[in-house]
Amino acid sequence: MKRDIELQYKTSIAAYLHTSPDHIFLYYKGRVALYAILKAMDVHQGDEVVIPAFTCVVVPNAIKYLGATPIYVDIDPVTYNADLQCLQQAITERTKVIICQNTFGLSSNVEQIQALAYSRRIYTIEDCTHGFGGSYHGKPNGSYCDAAFYSTQWNKPFSTGVGGFAWVQNPELASKIAAVNSQMEPATRKDALSLSMLYFVREKILTEKRYWWMIRLYRWLSRHNLVQGSSGGAELISTLMPDHYFKALSATQMKKGLQNLQHLGDAMALRKNNARIYNDYLRQHGKTFVSPALFDDHSFLKFPLLVFQREKVLEMAEKQHIPLGEWFCSPIHPVCEHWEQWDLQGDKYPIAVEKASQMLNLPTDEKNPDKVIHFLEEINDYIL
To answer: 3-class DSSP state for residue 161?
Structure first.
C-alpha cells in the first residue's frame, strides 16, 4: 500500500518537474533532503560549502552535521540571492559544493553559477525550498544543477505538513543517494498521529483572528519538541544533529501531498496575482518594490516588505489580523544571536544583515488582497 502511494506521489511531483519518478527521493523534511544530497556528494570534514548569508539555519546545520564548513557570501539587494561577484571570490581549493538559493520564489544567476562550478569540478545544489511550482528562464526551478531539494512544509506552494524531497539529475549521485537513503529510519505511528492532529488544527481551527496567538503557541511547542514544527529546539541552539533527524517521509504525508498537488496551479496563480497588486501599490507610493523584469522568474511564495520599527509593524498587523511573515529576519533565520556557532561573522555581510533587519513578508495566498492593501496604507510611513 505505501509503495503504491509513494510511486503515485513521486509520479505527480515528477510530472511538474518534467522528469522521471526515479529521480525523486522523499524525506521527512526538506533539510533532510539537503543532508542526503551532501552525504551522497561525500561532503566531509575539511570541505567547504558556499551559501548565501541570507538563509535558514537548517542549511548550515546540514553542512555542519557532516563536519564541513559553510562559507557565506553577501547578497544582491535586489534579488536577495547570493551576489555573483562575492560568490566567485569565496571559492577556494576546498570548495566542494555551491548552493544556489531560490529566495521567496526567485532564482537568479543559476546558469552562471553552474558553469563556474562545472569548470572547477564543484557540485551545485539548488535550494528550492521556496520554489516548487515556479520556473527560471522557462524551466522548472531545480532544473539546472546536479541536484535540488524542496520543502513541503506548512506554508509552501503545496504542503504535506512537514516534508520534503530531492530531485537528483546527476546520474552518479542518483545511485549514491539511494545507498545513503538505506540508512534512513522510518516515520513512526506517533509521527503520523501528531501530523494528523496538526492537519485538523490548521484546516478547522486556525482562523485570521486566531492566527497570531496560535502561531506563537505552535512555535513554542515546536521549540520544545512537543509538536512537529518547522524547526525543533535543538536545531536553533546547537550544530549537533538531533536524534531521529534522518527520517523517511510517511504515507500520511504523501496522501496529504497528493491532495494538495491538485490545487497547485490555482495556488500559484493566486500568489502571482497578489504579488502584482502589492507591487503596484509599493511602486506607486515610492517604496521598495520588485523589479517587473524579475516577475517571469518569481513565484512569490512570500512577498518581501522592507520596514523600519519592525516590532511596531508586527503589532499593527496582529491588531488588524494580517498574517505577516517573518522569514529571513536574520541572516540565518530564525537565529538572532551567537551566529559564530554557525561560522557566520555578521560584519562581513553588511547587505544581508541590513536586509534581514528590515524584512517582513506579505501573504501571497491571501484571498482578499484589498485587506492587505488597506494595511499597507495604514503602515505607509513605516515602509522603506
So the answer is: coil
